[in-house]
Amino acid sequence: MIDGGILTLDTFLIGAAAIIVLFAVGLLYRVAKGPTMEDRVIAINAVGTNTVVVLALLAVGLDQPGFLDIAIVYALLNFLASIAISKFIVERGGVL
Question: Which domain range does residue 25 map to?
Answer without folding.
Answer: 7-89
